[in-house]
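Bench notes, afternoon.
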Amino acid sequence: MKCPYCENDGTKVIDSRHTEEGHVIRRRRECEKCGKRFTTYEKVEEMVMMVVKKDGSRQAFDRNKIMNGILKSCEKRPVAVADMEKIVSEIERGLSNMMEKEVKSSFIGELVMDKLKELDEVAYVRFASVYRQFTDINTFMKEIEKLASSRK
């Protein structure tokens, strides 16, 4: 790390502290040449993940979009917001661990549905009806029948 005062390469770390829930480390450094002290911050560089939409367009991953879809699905259901946040965090962490630069929106939708199926079946059916674009009552009933048979 170069000293911001004299441009010397030789600096030493005097103190390190975690900030922002442990995601950032604050370091106090001292230049070995001029003796001046300065602060640096170290954090993991996160890769920007692109979501490939059904039409082939791409946009940056946005966890808020997932959360909004889950919120709508869970509206007036006995599901805690903390549980919804947990689902979004699990999905985001899983996608990040894949280390892919691009991921299909359909894959993300399936992950959301899998999580909702475990959390609340009504929320699952609501999400699936929008995500899979149910066009009539028959497709709606088929999904409910699949859900009911998987419970047995």
